[in-house]
Design a protein that fits this description.
This protein is of the alpha/beta class. It has a single domain (about 5-205), classed as Rossmann fold (3-Layer(aba) Sandwich). It is about 30% helix and about 20% strand. Helix 4 (about 165-170) links the parallel strand 7 (about 155) and strand 8 (about 180). The longest helix is centred in the middle third of the chain and has 13 residues, at about 85-100. The termini are far apart.
């Protein structure tokens, strides 16, 4: 993402997972750890996706340490596509590798990665819950995106031709989950990444007491 990006590997369930870490430059101690999940591995999704990098940049600007990683079978990560099941375990392995005890955690993801982030949040909810969950273009049609905790952010493009907005609203309605709709914008947020970043920064701003 920039010259200060740190490359690392962690041991996942089926082998090493390639990771990229970015930290705030001026912060004495980051606000917490943000793990960002990339889109569908079989459709070109990697941790270098522009939406994923935008999410990581927003977290870093807001004072969080961000970790992007490649799911199994992507880039230099070991293993093979597991239909969205083992990929949840990959993300959990990354959380365990980089999160210190009691450290605030944020989970974010784009498209397929949003599904993974939601499932990781659900698995951690009882013992070590995430403080923030941010989903962009969640793939609600092909995967079971889990209900989200309060104060989560969901952003979707009005003109998304991969995951129709109507499908996301159908998913959000039973849980009364607000969805921020970006007008005239497609799945990949072409031309709207700056706006997406500003929406994420707004959601990460410290809340008044």
């Amino acid at each position: 993402m920039n010259s200060r990006t740190e490359r690392a590997t962690v041991t996942g369930p089926v082998g090493e997972l390639a990771c990229a870490l970015d930290a705030p430059v001026d912060a004495i101690a980051p606000r917490g750890l943000a793990v960002v999940c990339h889109p569908h591995p079989l459709h070109g999704g990697t941790m270098n996706n522009k939406v994923v990098q935008t999410l990581a940049r927003a977290f870093v600007q807001a004072g969080w340490r961000s970790v992007r990683f490649d799911f199994r079978g992507v880039g230099e990560s070991a293993g093979h596509w597991d239909g969205g099941v083992g990929e949840i375990d990959d993300a959990l392995a990354v959380v365990r590798a980089f999160r210190t005890s009691g450290q605030p955690l944020a989970l974010a993801g784009f498209s397929f990665g949003a599904y993974v982030a939601s499932q990781v949040a659900a698995r951690l909810a009882d013992q070590a819950p995430a403080e923030r969950v941010i989903l962009v273009g969640p793939a609600v049609q092909n995967f079971e995106v889990a209900p989200l905790p309060p104060a989560s952010l969901v952003v979707h493009g009005e003109a998304d031709d991969v995951v129709p907005l109507a499908a996301v609203l159908d998913w959000a309605r039973p849980q009364v989950q607000p969805v921020v709709v970006v007008p005239a914008t497609g799945h990949f947020f072409h031309g709207q990444l700056a706006l997406l970043k500003s929406l994420v920064l707004g959601a990460l701003a410290p809340q008044p007491e």
